[in-house]
Every structure is written in C-alpha cells, then in structure tokens.
Amino acid sequence: MRSGVRSARNLGYSADEILGEPIERLLSEKFRGNHHRNVQQFARSPVRSRQMDERNRVYGRHRDGTLIPVEIAISKINVSGLIEFTAVIRDIADRVRLMDLLQKQAITDELTGLPNRREFLDVVEAVMGADADLSVFLLDVDHFKKINDSYGHDVGDEVLRLLSEVAMASSRSEDIFARWGGEEFIAALPGVNIEQAKAVAEDLRARIEQQEFQHHWRNGKPIPFTVSIGVARRSSRERNILELIKRADQALYKAKQTGRNRVEVDPS
Ligand SMILES: Nc1nc2c(ncn2[C@@H]2O[C@H](COP(=O)(O)OP(=O)(O)OP(=O)(O)O)[C@@H](O)[C@H]2O)c(=O)[nH]1
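ok -> structure tokens follow
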C-alpha cells in the first residue's frame, strides 16, 4: 500500500520526502510483517475506526532508526466502493515516560529505592503458589528514635539508606528485600528453609553490629546501630503472606523483648 502521508515530522521526515512512500517505512520491523494483514482485516470488519495506544504499545521508526512509542488512530471511509484509510500518528514518548515514572514511583520507596510494601506483597504473592520452601524475615533498627533525636533526622535517613545497601549487597537475585515502613525492612527468601534463613539473618545482624561496611557520613565517623530480626518459614500449604509476616513479626517482638540486637525464629 502507498501512503498518502501529509507530514511525518515527528518521525523525522518532511512531507515531500515521505509522500507516496510505503507506509511500512514508518513502522518498526515488529509491526511491519503483520501490517498488511491487519489492514485487510480492518477493511473487512464492520468497525469504522480503531485506536491503538499505550495499552498495546505501538512503535514507529524514526528516520534515524530509533523507535518511538506512538498512538495511532485509524479510520476508514467508503468512497464509491473504494476503501480509504486515514491514520493519525501521535508521538506519545513524553506520556509513556511519565507513565513509566509514575508506575515506578508507585512501587518504590523514595528514600531507599527499594520496593515498597505494596510491591513486596504483590511479588511475594506471585511466588506463594509454589510448593518450595519460603522464609521471610522482618528487620527493625534498634532504638532508632534515639538516633534521630541524637544526630538529626537526616542522619537517621542515612542510616536507613546504608542499611538497605548493606542488605541488598548480601542478598541473592531471587530474594525480595523491601522497606516495610518506617525503620522496618522485610525480606522474602524463596527456596530457603528456616535454618538457612536464620543463618542469613544472623549474618546480616552481625555485619551491621560490627559495622562491616563503608560509611559515608559527613564527618567520616560511623554511627553505631544494631538491628533485631524475626524469622518465619511458610508452613506447608500456607498461602496467606500476611499470616506468614505476622509470625515473623511475633518473632521480631520477642527479639526486641529479649534485649534487641538479636535474631529470633518463629517456633511454629
Ligand atoms: N529519619 C527517619 N526516621 C524515621 C523514618 N520513618 C520512621 N522514623 C522514625 O523511627 C522512629 C521509630 O521509633 P520507635 O517505633 O519508637 O522505635 P525505636 O526507637 O527504633 O525503638 P525499638 O524499635 O523499640 O528498638 C520514630 O522516631 C520515627 O519518627 C524515616 O524515614 N526517616
């Protein structure tokens, strides 16, 4: 099919350059193959207009070769038995960028860059169906209020960021580590039994106590802090992530009650 393109400035062409060229030239390879069939289908269907937008992202090919997300509104009219098509192609790169950003912000904790509570629950619920081992731990900074009160809120924030870096550096790619809220963090360890989970938590607790990491405080002086951790393993057939977290929380409570800077395991 020859195009009657009037203007394709957003794809890098002037009207003179593109008028009469095959419209496939403006499509990415992925859509080129199916283009002819799609047009035929649309021509035969009773539908008179269609809109393709970011829900089923379509990409146009810019003259310089880059792909640009576009929205295409296509409609047809019957002119004395001849079907004519009109397509309006709109560059939606800015809109797509904004939507991607908003989507990312909705699932990310701003301070640490970790997944937030909602994202953690969504991701872990997806792996809850598997029958393999799954353990979680809840981690809480000890006397964090005192850190804020003694050094200021900014330093408190820095402690939270540092903690998330240390925990992320020691976690595996399949682990899900997230900010649960405030000074509480949570980890899901797929394929890990309770003894292994306890060892992972104990290792992290000890690394933090011994300050085995690089500091970047303003005056170079480390701020000593410790954490308490509660660990629980999914019992057989347990499918409710909140029940599992509740048991980890009870273990955490016990760790706090029995002196802090400890790892406690849920007995069930
Ligand atoms: N700097 C900073 N502080 C926070 C943030 N979120 C929560 N907090 C503070 O964390 C503190 C938590 O205090 P508490 O719940 O009393 O717990 P704690 O002082 O850590 O005591 P224990 O948990 O019993 O060891 C509060 O003072 C909150 O204001 C944050 O994002 N940044």
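The chain has two domains: 9-96, 108-265.
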